Prior knowledge:
Blueprint: H1 3-21, H2 25-45, E1 50-52, H3 64-72, E2 76-82, E3 88-92, E4 98-100, E5 106-108, E6 123-127, E7 130-132, E8 137-138, H4 144-151, E9 158-161, E10 167-168, E11 182-184, E12 189-191
Parallel strand pairs: 1-2, 1-6, 6-9, 7-10, 9-11
Antiparallel strand pairs: 2-3, 4-5, 7-8, 11-12
Helix pairs in contact: 2-3
Protein name: 5-formyltetrahydrofolate cyclo-ligase
Cofactor: Mg(2+)
Family: Belongs to the 5-formyltetrahydrofolate cyclo-ligase family.
Amino acid sequence: MTADVTDTKRALRAELRERRRTRTSKQVEEATEGLTRNLVAVAETYGARTIASYLSSPTEPNTRPFLNWAVAGGRRVLLPIGRTDGLLDWTEGDGESETEGLHGVPEAVGEILGPIAINDADLIVVPASAVDGRGIRMGWGRGYFDRTLGSMERCPPVFALVYDDEILDEVPREVHDAPVDGAVTPTRIVRFTH
Length: 194
């Protein structure tokens, strides 16, 4: 990784964090309704019975209403638990029971299923700071989801969850950055071809 790419990513992440931090509660509430509606549409399109997702932090697009919908509909929800070795364990979640995990992010409470549990997923919803028109996802710099997606033998559809202004013309890419199949925003569902 060159210093230029590292610096570019760092600056872009800082800008995106600030945008998220300054959204009003009304903007977040309105966005949550659209995000949930569009996530439900994606899950139904793929007939997803097992969904791997995550518990959003306060500044991220809110995943909880979607997770509640999935659980209420009898779907299996897998939620990540960060490990110190940079991998993700998984647990079945209800979208509500949580604790503070590594790096201060919310994590589900439940039986640890191990890293290979994600192989059961029919759909994966991942966090992102931004996605570009090629489907390149920029995370927050820890690499958990890039490692997870890169290690899967058979990867189901992967959708990044972002706000509308976080689909950019281009994001800096490194060799380990796994592309996504689509992005879900409050107003649209975008699919990418690779």
